[in-house]
Amino acid sequence: GVFMYNHLQQKVRNAEALAQKYKQQQEALSAQLQVVYEHRSRLERSLQKERGEHKKTKEDFLVYKLEAQEALNKEKQDSMNRYGALSSQHKILKNQHEDVKKQLLDLQLQHNSLKLEHRKALETHSQKYAQLQQEKDSEVTNLQDTVFKLREESKLLRKAHQEVHSQLLSAQ
């Protein structure tokens, strides 16, 4: 009877040690899961910040475009007024009139150049946004896979804990 009692006590101590080990593993997994959640939260905040900055940049560009358009319209109007005034002195000031036309052409070329730069900047932003979106999607997928694996491990740990508990009850 004493031998049997000592044997059962040894089994109980072993089972308690195993339960403690499983509890520590579960705590470690919980800590890792918390780290994953915090990382995901930081990524989401970073994405929101990038979206805000992109929106501000886009609004600033639209304001700049409007101002440039107004300046160009003003230049065109000034050129037309000058042309009207110069037409009465056409013979004397013909060379000056040609200079104004050249200036207008230069402004149009500059305007076209600005439009091309805008298009390139927009394409660059679109590509960067698509890349960030793809990276975010990849990270979310990885996080979901990690959560799934951690849940599966938690299920296995619970099942093993339940089996140990059942064995202890059977042993008692």
From TrEMBL:
UniProt protein name: GOLI4 protein
GO cellular component, one term: Golgi membrane
Coiled-coil intervals, chain numbering: 5-60, 90-142
Organism from which the protein derives: Cochlearius cochlearius (Boat-billed heron)
Alphabetic keyword roster: Coiled coil
